[in-house]
Design brief:
This protein has about 230 residues and is an all-alpha fold. It folds into 2 domains: about 100 residues; about 130 residues. Helix content is about 75%, strand content about 0%. Helix 5 packs antiparallel against helix 9 and helix 8 runs antiparallel to helix 9. The radius of gyration is 20 Å and the shape is elongated.
């Protein structure tokens, strides 16, 4: 399913939801309409497949619908869909920029997604987006094709820091505060905190600012070391 198709499904759902709000009131339980409840559940499943880096958020929403207290209202459903729509809008922009070879700008979009998910207290997704932004920045500034997926960000940064390639102090911070915590979240079940996110969004903002109009200059030997590990 394309992002455009999912966006159209979201719009149709919001239209149906508006009708139910007029009928039942926005503070009514989502279960007040079996039709809307079924549509919403299906929508969350579709979004989870399309945006896997936000899976924890979608799982939380899905569980919240079944919770006895606090009740999940029609207003909550509306807020959720608006949030997802914003994420999809940025995701579509990011993918479009990658196709246009504007990879660095796409990293900015991922940083923006991180900020949006942070405001929703979705800290795990915040880190996923920050990690993706970091990968895109490295691919752009090191000339790594975007078609190469799952690059070893940790190894690449270690090489750059070891050889004191500028801006290595900022890259070192990105490793410590973004890559390491994201790995803990993925593999050890660590739950990033609010302060983790605040610090790491700042780290990514500073790194992007430092590299916006600069290249990472590499010797042939260092470049070969990086490419050997891809």
């Amino acid at each position: 399913m394309s992002l455009e198709t999912l966006e159209n499904i979201l719009k149709l759902f919001l239209e149906d939801l508006s009708k139910r709000v007029e009928e039942f009131g926005e503070t009514s339980h989502l279960r007040s309409s079996h039709h809307i409840l079924a549509e919403f559940r299906n929508l969350i499943r579709l979004c989870s497949k399309q945006l896997p880096e936000h899976d924890e958020y979608f799982t939380h929403i899905y569980d919240s619908v079944d919770a006895i207290f606090p009740i999940f209202t029609l207003r909550d459903a509306h807020s959720t869909v608006v949030h997802i729509s914003r994420i999809l809008e940025i995701q579509e922009s990011s993918e479009s920029k990658i196709k246009e070879m504007k990879v660095f700008e796409s990293a900015n979009d991922k940083l923006e997604q991180a900020v949006i998910t942070f405001r929703k207290d979705d800290y795990t997704s915040t880190f996923h987006n920050l990690n993706t932004a970091l990968e895109l920045v490295l691919k752009d500034r090191l000339g790594i094709p975007v078609t190469i997926t799952n690059i070893n960000t940790l190894r690449i940064i270690d090489i750059l820091v070891k050889h004191r390639i500028q801006p290595y102090p900022y890259l070192s911070e990105a490793k410590k505060r973004i890559v390491m915590i994201d790995n803990k979240a993925k593999h050890q079940g660590y739950s990033p905190s609010k302060i983790d996110c605040i610090n790491d969004i700042k780290v990514m903002e500073e790194l992007i600012s430092r590299l916006r109009d600069k290249e990472i200059r590499l010797t042939e030997d260092i470049r070969n070391k990086i490419y050997e590990g891809l």
